[in-house]
Design a protein that fits this description.
Layout (H helix, E strand, L loop, with lengths): L7 E5 L18 E7 L2 E7 L1 H5 L8 H7 L4 E4 L2 H15 L6 E3 L4 E5 L14
């Protein structure tokens, strides 16, 4: 009797905190999400444009604005972010009965036995 391996698909969503319509219009400008740490507003999530400017996670907003004056920022809302991730997990359950949060910014899906529905593992 042959046993099959359990297969998991992990969705890594590093830019999810930036997914807000208010920041969407100008994707050429650097974007970042902020959170308060030790009394200072610090960059928490950066899009690729902001990273190309040399901005880094943990940098203060003041230092970031000195490097990239056109930086678009949003305040990170951990509760809204968690709610969004949970909604994504619930949506993924239409494809597999086992979908779970993969903290801090991901979703994990058990895809054992369903890969043929998507053309196999390489196609998936």
């Amino acid at each position: 009797m042959a046993t099959s391996a359990t297969l998991y698909l992990s969705l890594y969503l590093p830019f999810l905190p930036l997914e807000r319509s208010a920041l969407a219009p100008d994707l050429a400008k650097p974007r970042a999400a902020l959170r308060k740490e030790k009394g200072a507003q610090r960059l928490f999530c950066l899009d690729p444009v902001a990273q190309r400017f040399g901005l880094q996670k943990g940098m203060s907003l003041t230092d970031a604005r000195a490097i990239a004056p056109d930086l678009l920022v949003i305040e990170h809302d951990p509760h809204a972010f968690q709610k969004k991730l949970i909604a994504m997990v619930d949506w993924c359950r239409r494809f597999t009965p086992l979908a779970a949060l993969d903290a801090p910014d991901g979703v994990m899906l058990d895809i054992t036995g369903v890969t043929h529905l998507f053309g196999g593992v390489p196609a998936l």
